[in-house]
């Protein structure tokens, strides 16, 4: 009996020998290139653009989440043309110009996302008309601060540069400077209620009272600094902002010990999510800024009473719900806005698409050591009749701003 | 009762080599051969031969033989060896001059090898941990032993931050609930580690802190290598112990003859080294010396946080026999250093100026005189224990300070208007805290016994005086160059703070009474304690605290079941315990609030002026009392043929734990308006009188200690020990506990929302019912399977432990306050109308739908493996792996599945031990 | 009689006089080391040797490499303490165990913040800075085997934990734990022919996280996915990687020692690894399969022994990428796709000659190895493949100097010739630093190499059971037109 068992064993062994030799040249089907690609067809819903006739210009940008690959497509001639892209999860940004029945032209934009997992995919986008307020625009925001010779961060000497990009003089009285409540690098799970397409959630609001308003010529600008003094006296690498038009020093927190320069009028912090009226700019630029004006009949008191924004969001990891309270400013009141973040850290835009459909920022990596001393600045389109610079404003800061930050313009003091 | 303490003698010893040489003249003709039950010779046995006035000593060589000289016809031989214990035998002289002695190895008694904590069978529930369990556990510091308590779980050592002790409670304690760890007392050889005079807090509030003030003993400073046994009393201690609420840790260290012992441990975080030797200087005098060193990092990559612990201890014990009694005099001299050092990391990107070094050098001198009487007089034992502990604590720090803008600071020390001053925006600030706590304890204790009508009374009585004072120079820094720009304190010296003195008298009687086979023992004790020379303004000044302690144990008669006897007993206990407030709570530092009245930062420096209104606030709470804890427990003990089981239900209520509560007051100051000044051509700083001003008021909080923290602990502790089953040489120990711990604030709290509206500070304070209290209840389990293979002297143990379930429930947090007050301090109820007021709507705290939701964590398990093995004579290798395997069951919260991935970070290490 | 003959030793020769020289020959028997694959079935350990022996040594080694794969670094030095013992107990059962502690430094490591590249394949957490890794490893292994009439049973458990970290930015810390449980049985079928089978389960975990101490800026990290590719999203968003590998390794063997002296072992290994980041997102999966056959035939003529040994093995590894989407949720799986493939064909032919005299012991083994390695990315046309032919020889000469002292010399030389090597890496599409890394590794893998090794060991007997030994070892590798790599090691130990 034992011999027979021995024979079977030897047979089994020889069988395994053969399988080994033949399986070495793998014949498994290659994943053919074809099944990894998808054809995307876009449909445009234009009911928000009254009197829409046709597209003059229609460009589409697809950015894949996992690989970071970018795909550009021009659908100006035929908006139903299919776009070929590898499968994946894409962010879709539409920018273009529409021709109305009346022959006028209006800027159009839309942001959306799409999962390309099958061979054929479809996405409907509702286009939004870009609103231009023909008023002040944000030309530059310097939020990174500087690094002293000894290598330590100096967190003051930050400013907003607001420019009159129109052809008439404007008054700064009643101007509001808004800081977003949401952080562009942290996207929480289902904000309820989600209001960004109607209003901007704000974490801090500066207000220039009418009493200290001043007239600004076309092409001229004003500087609103945290402390309007010569910071280079404190730290050699900081800037001389003694010529600022307005400042917002914090006199309420006794321990901050900030200084109120007598010559520079103070903007009022009418709301801050922080105690002691503290209004700080995030030094890696993960927030968005906007300027606005109260419409007729709305005062600081009535805004504080009626525009509180209570919302909640959910932590995906453990299902906890968090309640938060901020204030909101309706998008119609906003004159101009800019989203800021860093390409590597961006998750979502804190401002609605109609105000700014893209985003800009300083540096390409989170915590980029070279970001200090740089700011986000608008591209110059051309020159006005009076020789002053004319800036580009298509409500898409990816196109309108010099990408990933440049030297701050007030590096050597304020020169009008 | 013949004195059973062995009499050993050694003629000379070398300090460095710690080796033993026995020198005895006279001609060596007798030999003694020492063998084990298998006839194998035993080397290194310490032999002493006494006959009449001749005494000889020798050490057996590897043939097991020892030599000695002329003796009378009858002589006694006393042998001592680690593995064979102490034996004594009488011989009569024979002509062959060769005598044989067989020794039975101590370790063959397998049953008593216990590698876990053994439950005390005494009157109060306690865990006893012996030398073998500690050697097998391979701990780095005392905090690793806490795993062996019922409900304990292993955790990675965290040797670069304070390890606070937690007994019978879930949660991490900390925050407002520190009284549990402050109220646990540590005693080493009878000397208590007094933390009442600990002020070691850094001047820089937001710098690194290894703070132990008001937290109690830091367990990482206690090494375990020289400990013989530890008794952790979780229940109600006898009246002889006081100034504690939660538990008592009694550590007894090694004494008596011990050959050279060494231990070297390495794991991912730390390296530990230990060397010790016990000498028998004369028959009645032993000296034990040991050296102990630990070096640890929190994370091997983080070279900024280093912790070093050094320990040298010399302990002597001498026994004098005087007539019918003997007097034992024990002296311990200890030096311990614990140094936390933070170095600036080379990569931090700026010049290496910051330094942090927190050194604590502590010198202990303990003396214990114990007189024992053997006649049948009432007094059995009188003991006087005196301990002196002087610590030299230096916390030195240096920091590059760069203000975030041109900054002004106030240097006033009294309330009133003062001109501040502009420091440079960048400077190096040197600051330090010097503490010199001195603790003296003296305890006289007597024990006696008498019997009346078949009840045996064991009386213990005595007086316990404790003195602790900090004579350090305190917090010192140059006011012009402070470590940060928001200083709320000023330099302060500790030596003008009065001493913390308590006096306590205690009397206790343990009565034993047996009828038929029932055995009853009842302990009733009372401790009276009072703080001495506290000024009369304090309500604690003449408070006498009475602490009754009662424990009843009823052992039922043995019941024969099958071929074994069932032993059973019930123990009940009730006790009230008080923890006196520490010096830090009674004499807190003054708080300085500076409000900027004028900040005229002109370009030209000599026109510049800054003016403050400073308030100096005394935050002492004169009505602070001791924290009281009422402990009740009932325990059932069962034993049957080597199996033993205990189940304890306990209920501890501490309504008056210490907590620092912040309440708000409004402060008034003037805000000067400089807009009217002619800035351009000013030559002198503005004069306050000439400037228009506006009266401003702001609400600022100050924190004060009070008895507002409530910790309510209930639970069931259980443990089962199996006998060491012969076939597998394995013992099963299943230990666990269900705890329900409620942490609550017992007085309403005040909170101010973090928002600024319309350019003004927020002007209302809400009074809310509940702070973030929470209730945690759950069950932990720990099954230890340990196998001892005597053939290769190897001990393997696997422990399967984890949490069976854990429920965390936040005390219901209302979003609306019950009342509020404004700048005027008048308290109003909070009505619905206020919910829509522009400003008062912000008093509604954001309480989300899940804040008050109960979170139920299900089952998790973790497997730890430990191996200790002798590889060559008494050279041993041991190794351990925690989290060899772990699994955390996912759970549902707010109907969302929450995955809990298994951790992929096992904690592992190895040890090389010699004779340990 | 039949049973006791068979019982004597699986290695096949009884030994009458047990002098110190003979015991060393027995303890370090090269033929048994050649049949190592047989003892992967723990049941056969009961016939490993009829004598108990243990050794305990501590050693220091330093390996300076001028030509090296960037992920391995250019220098490694450190200490090792090792104790191993084999103990024959009375009742026909054996115990064996080993304890190893290592404390090393690897300098010049680049593109590699993780450990055990053989386990985690291409899915490394990498950064471009060159750093020095401090490395510690703790390992222990214990086994028991018993023989009951015709059956043999055996079980073995081994655990290895490693930790490596850097203390300059960027600072990875990698911790690994590798648990293997093995059980085997064998049955004496006919005369001394035995068949045996065993199964080994492996559970391996590794977690790596990177910290930065510089407060103003940090270098970028890459979650690599093979041949220069990396996950864009997760490389910027995460600074940790957690690996879980579970595998089974089974084998069947048929062996005879006495008369026919032949052995045939076939084994199959199958393992799966998954990689998680920020301890919740699975981003890669790896599946390994390996088949292998060992055959050996022994001849004993008087004092001469010959052993022919043939190995054929085929290894296949496939990697899967998992893509995510954050459209209307936080972050959820979108799809999976196979993206990476690697295969290795390996075959080895060797003959060992061994001769033992009264005072001399000689063994010599020439061998030939043929290996074909292919690696490719499935979605991008990017691949590389190498085919080697290795000819070499190993020899050992042990001389009894006196009844108490023995000298052992062992040496080996091998020449690796490249039969074919080609690649298509299109490194111009990559980040330049990653491109240079791939090209420098390819250059090394595709060049010929001559490596040689010499070691001298002196044993001295102190007591009947106790011997002291010192060992000095020198190793050299010379890649064509590249500078030489050198290794020097020294060990001091006791045998008892």
Automatic annotation (TrEMBL), chain A:
Keywords: Signal
Pfam families: DUF4876 (PF16215)
Signal peptide (residue range): 1-23
InterPro entries associated with the record: DUF4876
Record-given protein name: DUF4876 domain-containing protein
From TrEMBL, chain B:
Database matches in Pfam families: Plug
Gene3D superfamilies linked: TonB-dependent receptor, plug domain
One example of a Gene Ontology biological process annotation: siderophore transmembrane transport
Cellular component annotations (GO), alphabetically ordered: cell outer membrane
Keywords: Receptor, Signal
Domain of life: Bacteria
SUPFAM superfamilies linked: Carboxypeptidase regulatory domain-like, Porins
GO MF: siderophore uptake transmembrane transporter activity
InterPro entries: CarboxyPept-like_regulatory, Plug_dom, Plug_dom_sf, TonB-dep_rcpt-like
Domain TonB-dependent receptor plug: 124-245
Protein name: TonB-dependent receptor plug domain-containing protein
Protein source organism: Myroides pelagicus
Native organism taxonomy: Bacteria, Pseudomonadati, Bacteroidota, Flavobacteriia, Flavobacteriales
């Amino acid at each position: 009996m034992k011999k027979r068992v021995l024979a079977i064993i030897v047979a089994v062994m020889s069988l395994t020998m053969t399988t080994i030799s033949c399986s070495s040249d793998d014949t498994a089907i290659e994943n053919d290139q074809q099944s990894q690609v998808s054809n995307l067809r876009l449909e445009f819903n234009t009911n928000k653009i009254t009197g829409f006739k046709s597209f003059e210009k229609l460009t589409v940008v697809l950015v894949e989440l996992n690989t970071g690959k970018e795909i550009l497509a021009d659908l100006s001639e035929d908006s139903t043309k299919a776009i070929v892209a590898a499968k994946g999860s894409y962010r879709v940004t539409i920018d273009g110009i529409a021709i109305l029945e009346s022959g006028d032209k209006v800027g159009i934009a839309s942001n959306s996302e799409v999962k390309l997992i099958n061979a054929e995919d479809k996405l409907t986008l509702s286009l939004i008309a870009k609103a231009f307020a023909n008023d002040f625009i944000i030309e530059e925001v310097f939020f990174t601060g500087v690094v002293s010779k000894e290598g330590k961060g100096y967190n003051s000497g930050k400013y907003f540069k607001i420019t009159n990009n129109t052809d008439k003089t404007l008054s700064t009285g009643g101007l509001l400077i808004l800081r977003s409540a949401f952080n562009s690098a942290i996207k929480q799970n289902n904000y309820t209620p989600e209001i960004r397409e109607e209003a901007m959630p704000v974490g801090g609001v500066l207000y220039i009272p009418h009493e200290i308003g001043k007239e600004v010529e076309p092409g001229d600008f004003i500087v609103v600094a945290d402390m309007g003094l010569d910071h280079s006296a404190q730290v050699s690498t900081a800037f001389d902002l003694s010529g600022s038009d307005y400042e917002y020093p914090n006199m309420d927190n006794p321990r901050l010990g900030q200084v109120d320069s007598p010559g520079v009028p103070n903007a009022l912090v009418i709301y801050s999510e922080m105690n002691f009226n503290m209004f700080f700019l995030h030094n890696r630029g993960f927030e968005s800024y906007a300027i606005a004006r109260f419409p007729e009949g709305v005062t600081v008191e009535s805004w504080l009473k009626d525009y509180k924004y209570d919302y909640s969001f959910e932590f995906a990891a453990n299902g906890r719900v968090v309640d938060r309270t901020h204030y909101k400013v309706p998008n119609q009141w906003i004159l101009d806005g800019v989203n800021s973040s860093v390409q590597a850290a961006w998750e979502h835009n804190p401002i609605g698409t109609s105000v700014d459909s893209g985003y800009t920022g300083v540096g390409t990596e989170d915590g980029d050591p070279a970001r200090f001393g740089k700011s986000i600045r608008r591209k110059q389109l051309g020159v006005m009749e009076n020789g002053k610079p004319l800036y580009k404003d298509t409500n898409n800061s990816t196109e309108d701003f010099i990408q990933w930050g440049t030297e701050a313009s007030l590096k050597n003091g304020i020169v009008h | 009762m013949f004195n059973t303490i062995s009499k050993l003698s050694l003629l000379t010893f070398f300090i460095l080599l710690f080796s033993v040489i026995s020198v005895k003249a006279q001609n060596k003709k007798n030999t003694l051969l020492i063998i084990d039950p298998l006839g194998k010779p035993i080397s290194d046995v310490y032999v002493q031969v006494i006959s009449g006035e001749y005494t000889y000593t020798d050490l057996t060589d590897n043939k097991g033989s020892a030599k000695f000289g002329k003796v009378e016809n009858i002589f006694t031989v006393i042998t001592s060896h680690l593995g064979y214990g102490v034996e004594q035998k009488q011989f009569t002289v024979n002509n062959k001059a060769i005598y044989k002695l067989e020794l039975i190895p101590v370790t063959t008694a397998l049953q008593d090898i216990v590698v876990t904590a053994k439950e005390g069978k005494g009157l109060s529930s306690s865990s006893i941990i012996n030398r073998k369990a500690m050697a097998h556990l391979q701990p780095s510091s005392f905090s690793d032993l806490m795993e062996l308590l019922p409900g304990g779980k292993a955790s990675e050592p965290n040797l670069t931050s304070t390890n606070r002790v937690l007994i019978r409670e879930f949660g991490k304690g900390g925050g407002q609930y520190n009284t549990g760890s402050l109220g646990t007392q540590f005693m080493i050889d009878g000397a208590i580690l007094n933390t009442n005079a600990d002020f070691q807090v850094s001047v820089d509030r937001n710098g690194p802190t290894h703070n132990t003030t008001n937290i109690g003993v830091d367990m990482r400073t206690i090494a375990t290598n020289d400990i013989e046994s530890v008794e952790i009393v979780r229940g109600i201690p006898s009246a002889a112990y006081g100034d504690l609420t939660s538990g008592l840790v009694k550590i007894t260290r090694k004494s008596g003859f011990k050959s050279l012992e060494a231990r070297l441990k390495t794991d991912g975080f730390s390296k530990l080294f230990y060397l010790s030797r016990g000498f028998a200087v004369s028959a009645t005098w032993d000296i034990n010396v040991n050296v102990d060193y630990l070096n640890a990092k929190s994370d091997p990559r983080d070279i900024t946080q280093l912790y070093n612990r050094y320990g040298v201890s010399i302990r002597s014990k001498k026994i004098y026999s005087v007539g019918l009694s003997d007097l034992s005099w024990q002296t311990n001299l200890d030096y311990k250093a614990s140094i936390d050092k933070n170095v600036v990391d080379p990569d931090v990107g700026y010049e290496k100026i910051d330094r942090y070094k927190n050194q604590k050098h502590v010198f202990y001198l303990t003396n214990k005189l114990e007189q024992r009487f053997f006649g049948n007089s009432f007094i059995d034992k009188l003991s006087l224990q005196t301990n002196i502990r002087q610590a030299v604590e230096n916390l030195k720090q240096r920091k590059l300070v760069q203000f975030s803008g041109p900054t002004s600071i106030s240097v006033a020390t009294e309330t009133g208007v003062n001109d501040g001053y502009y420091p440079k925006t960048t400077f190096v600030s040197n600051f330090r805290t010097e503490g010199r706590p001195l603790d003296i304890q003296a305890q006289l204790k007597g024990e006696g016994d008498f019997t009346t009508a078949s009840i045996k009374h064991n009386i213990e009585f005595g007086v316990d005086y404790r003195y602790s004072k900090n004579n350090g120079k305190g917090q010192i820094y140059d006011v012009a160059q402070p470590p940060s720009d928001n200083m709320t304190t000023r330099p302060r010296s500790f030596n003008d703070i009065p001493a913390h003195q308590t006096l306590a008298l205690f009397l206790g009687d343990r009565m034993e009474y047996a009828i038929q086979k029932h055995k009853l023992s009842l302990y009733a004790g009372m401790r009276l304690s009072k703080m001495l020379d506290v000024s009369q303004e304090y309500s604690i000044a003449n408070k006498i605290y009475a602490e009754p302690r009662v424990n009843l144990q009823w052992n039922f008669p043995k019941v024969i079941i099958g071929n074994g006897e069932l032993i059973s007993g019930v123990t009940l206990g009730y006790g009230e315990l008080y923890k006196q407030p520490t010096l830090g709570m009674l004499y807190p530092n003054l708080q300085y609030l500076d409000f900027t009245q004028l900040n005229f930062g002109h370009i030209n420096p000599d026109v510049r002026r800054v003016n403050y209104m400073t308030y100096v606030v005394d935050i002492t709470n004169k009505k602070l009392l001791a924290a009281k804890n009422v402990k009740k427990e009932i325990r059932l003990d069962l034993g049957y043929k080597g199996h033993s089981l205990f189940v304890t239900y306990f209920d501890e209520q501490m309504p008056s734990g210490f907590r620092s509560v912040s309440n708000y007051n409004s402060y008034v100051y003037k805000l000067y308006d400089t807009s009217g000044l002619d800035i351009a051509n000013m030559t002198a700083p503005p004069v306050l009188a000439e400037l228009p001003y506006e009266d401003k008021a702001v609400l600022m909080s100050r924190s004060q200690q009070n008895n507002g923290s409530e910790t309510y602990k209930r639970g069931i502790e259980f443990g089962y020990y199996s006998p060491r089953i012969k076939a597998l040489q394995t013992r099963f120990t299943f230990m666990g506990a269900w705890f329900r711990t409620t942490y609550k604030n017992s007085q309403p709290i005040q909170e101010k929302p973090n928002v600024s509206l319309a350019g003004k500070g927020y002007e209302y304070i809400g009074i809310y019912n509940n702070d973030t209290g929470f209730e945690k209840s759950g069950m932990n389990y720990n099954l230890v399977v340990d196998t001892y293979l005597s053939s290769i002297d190897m001990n393997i143990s696997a422990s399967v432990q984890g949490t069976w379930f854990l429920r965390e429930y936040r005390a219901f947090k209302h979003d609306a306050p019950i009342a509020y007050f404004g700048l005027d301090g008048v308290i109003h109820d909070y009505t619905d109308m206020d919910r829509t007021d522009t400003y008062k709507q912000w008093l509604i705290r954001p309480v989300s739908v899940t804040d008050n939701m109960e979170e139920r964590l299900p089952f998790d398990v973790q497997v730890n493996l430990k191996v200790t093995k002798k590889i060559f004579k008494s050279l041993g290798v041991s190794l351990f792996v925690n989290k060899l395997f772990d699994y955390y069951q996912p759970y549902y919260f707010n109907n969302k599945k929450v995955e809990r991935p298994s951790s992929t970070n096992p904690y592992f290490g190895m040890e090389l031990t010699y004779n340990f | 009689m039949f049973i006791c003959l068979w019982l004597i030793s699986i290695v096949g020769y009884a030994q009458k006089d047990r002098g110190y020289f003979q015991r060393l020959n027995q303890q370090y028997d090269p033929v048994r080391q050649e049949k190592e694959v047989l003892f992967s079935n723990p049941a056969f350990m009961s016939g490993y040797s009829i004598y108990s022996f243990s050794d305990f040594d501590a050693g220091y080694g330093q390996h300076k490499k001028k030509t090296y794969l960037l992920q391995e670094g250019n220098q490694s030095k450190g200490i090792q303490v090792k104790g191993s013992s084999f103990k024959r107990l009375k009742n026909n059962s054996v115990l064996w165990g080993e304890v190893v502690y290592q404390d090393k430094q690897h300098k010049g490591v680049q593109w590699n913040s993780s450990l055990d590249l053989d386990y985690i394949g291409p899915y490394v957490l990498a950064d471009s800075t060159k750093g020095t890794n401090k490395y510690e490893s703790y390992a222990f292994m214990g086994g028991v085997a018993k023989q009951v009439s015709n059956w043999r049973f055996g079980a073995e458990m081994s655990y290895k934990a490693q930790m490596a970290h850097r203390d300059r930015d960027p600072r990875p810390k990698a911790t690994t734990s590798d648990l293997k449980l093995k059980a085997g049985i064998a049955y004496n079928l006919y005369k001394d022919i035995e068949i045996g089978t065993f199964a080994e389960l492996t559970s391996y975990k590794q977690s790596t996280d990177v910290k930065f101490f510089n407060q103003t800026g940090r270098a970028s990290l890459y979650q690599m996915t093979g041949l220069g590719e990396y996950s864009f999203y997760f490389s910027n968003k995460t600074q940790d990687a957690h690996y879980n590998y579970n595998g089974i390794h089974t084998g069947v063997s048929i062996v005879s020692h006495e008369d026919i002296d032949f052995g045939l072992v076939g084994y199959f290994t199958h393992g799966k690894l998954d990689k998680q980041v920020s301890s919740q997102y699975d981003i890669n999966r790896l599946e390994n399969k390996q088949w292998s056959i060992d055959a050996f035939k022994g001849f004993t003529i008087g004092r001469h022994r010959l052993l022919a040994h043939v190995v054929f093995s085929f290894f296949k590894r496939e990697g899967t990428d998992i893509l995510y989407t954050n459209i209307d949720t936080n972050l959820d799986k979108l799809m999976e796709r196979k993206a990476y493939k690697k295969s290795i064909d390996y075959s080895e032919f060797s003959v060992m000659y061994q001769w033992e005299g009264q005072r001399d012991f000689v063994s010599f083994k020439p061998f030939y190895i043929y290996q074909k390695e292919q690696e490719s990315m499935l979605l991008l046309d990017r691949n590389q493949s190498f085919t080697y032919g290795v000819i070499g020889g190993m020899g050992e000469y042990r001389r009894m100097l006196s009844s108490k002292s023995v000298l052992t010399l062992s040496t080996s030389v091998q020449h690796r010739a490249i039969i074919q090597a080609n690649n298509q890496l299109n490194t111009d599409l990559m980040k330049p630093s990653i491109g240079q890394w791939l090209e420098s590794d390819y250059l090394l893998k595709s060049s010929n190499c001559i490596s040689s090794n010499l070691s001298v060991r002196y044993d001295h007997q102190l007591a009947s059971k106790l011997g002291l030994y010192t060992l000095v070892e020198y190793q050299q590798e010379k890649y064509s037109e590249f500078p030489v790599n050198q290794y020097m090691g020294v060990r001091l130990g006791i045998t008892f």
